Amino acid sequence: MIYMYDNANNLTDSCKFEENNYFYKYGILSLQHLATLQEDIDKLKRAKKLSENENFQRSMQRRNFEKPSEFQEAKYLIILARSRKLGIINFHYNGKKYEIKVPPDFHDDGVTEEDVEKAIHKHIIKKSGYKIVETEKIHLKLAAVRSGLAKYGRNNICYVDGMGSFLTLSAYFTDYDFQNETISELKMMDRCEKCNICLNKCPTKAISKENFVIDAGKCITQYNEYKGEFPKWIDKKFHNAIEGCLHCQYHCPANKEVIKDIVRLEDITEEETKVLLDDLENPELLNSLIKKIKMFTLEDADEELPIIKRNLEVLIK
Ligand code: B12
Ligand code: SF4
Ligand code: SF4
């Protein structure tokens, strides 16, 4: 694992830790600042800067910065970044080998929610008697930036020193009192001022200079993560990953080092690819395919396999 600290932001050494060879960094935010974060979002809504895309709007409606009613004793939010690796997987099909990218947060790296919670108690809280409650309801990038953990890239994704943008964010309410009221400004990385690579590489022009928030209705991920036919305006050539899209991160200079550290997933054999693409009946091969791609479990296969099949078809057929 390549892991560099360039100390470009205000983080102290105590805000990073390693557990079982996985790297974490965290920020904290006093709940006194929740209203400020909500106002950041509301301002964007009032200025009509957000995409009208239905899926995106549904996701926005589910999110807010309210303290959970069942945990009124909560005092702080812990925002955690866990470094992730780009995955590569070879699909063999009709005598050819296709090397396909699996974005960092789309394949299971074996770390469970329980592992992460244990690591938080061990490395962050450090004392017994305190509770943490995970929340997926908040806008995680905004909380990460406002806590000083991350900065935005022009591509609207968060960057953490040493991890680039290859990370998973999570957040936890806690009753532990960090006695720190600091809140950081909304910041874009300095290097983005003189760089437009992501803007130019985005095949659908979802990134623009006029609106810092991407046009979520134009982002490929909005379509290839879910079931259904691709809209006609998404050219087949635009697709570049088994799910999600990597164009605005792959070519980013802030990811130059982390991109070298890939994880090679096990090759998918001709027969296994045929189970997926040509509906070859074989439960055993289907099982081994699911285990190798590490993107979902057998229980979710009915939902997920048609998505992977459709995505792979545009990449290799
Ligand atoms: C909805 C969603 C999507 C939507 C919309 C994406 C978006 N940009 O909002 C879609 C499906 C398109 C999507 C795509 C992806 N997503 Co997504 N997504 C989410 C989700 C569920 C909510 C995001 C959200 O709140 N968006 C709303 C916007 C308004 O929030 P925001 O960008 O933070 O808004 C602030 C800034 O824009 C800023 N701002 C506004 N103007 C200005 C001006 C300046 C100068 C500055 C500095 C700031 C600034 O202020 C806003 C707040 O006031 C989060 C999980 C979560 N619970 O948060 C994951 C999440 C953001 N996604 C994630 C990932 C990895 C992705 C993909 C990279 C996946 C992939 N490989 O394909 C792509 C990236 C696309 C992109 N370029 O952003 C990660 C991001 C990790 C990281 N490194 O940042 C998250 C956090 C999931 C996770 N648990 O880790 N995603
Ligand atoms: S490609 Fe350039 S502009 Fe885009 S996020 Fe990376 S450094 Fe910033
Ligand atoms: S993930 Fe792909 S489509 Fe979405 S903004 Fe980035 S480059 Fe554009």
Description:
The protein has 317 residues and is α+β, with helices and mostly antiparallel strands. The protein has one domain. Helices cover 28% and strands 17% of the residues. The protein is built from ten helices and ten strands. The chain has helices at residues 34-46, 54-61, 113-125, 140-146, 197-201, 221-224, 247-250, 270-277, 283-293, 301-316, and strands at 16-19, 22-30, 76-83, 87-93, 96-102, 132-135, 151-152, 158-159, 167-174, 263-264. The strands form three sheets. Strands 1-2-3-9-6 form a five-stranded antiparallel sheet, sandwiched between helices. Strands 5-4-10 form a three-stranded mixed sheet. Strand 4 and strand 5 (96-102) form a beta hairpin. Helix 8 (270-277) crosses helix 9. The two termini are 34 Å apart. Residues 1-11 have low confidence and may be disordered. The site of one iron/sulfur cluster (SF4) has 13 residues, from helix 5.
Fraction of residues in H or I helices: 25-40%
Strand content range: 15-25%
The structural domain count equals 1
| Whole-number mean pLDDT | 94
By secondary-structure content and strand pairing, the structural class works out as: alpha+beta
Q: Taking strands numbered 1, 2, ... along the chain, how are they ordered across the largest sheet?
A: 1-2-3-9-6
What's the N-to-C terminus distance?
Answer: 34 Å
Count the beta strands.
10
Radius of gyration, whole Å: 20 Å
pLDDT < 50 runs, ≥5 residues: 1-11
Q: What string, H for helix and E for strand, traces the elements in order?
A: EEHHEEEHEHEEEHHHEHHH
Largest sheet: 5 strands, antiparallel
Heteromolecules bound: cobalamin, iron/sulfur cluster
By DSSP (H or I, 4+ residues per run), the number of helices equals 10
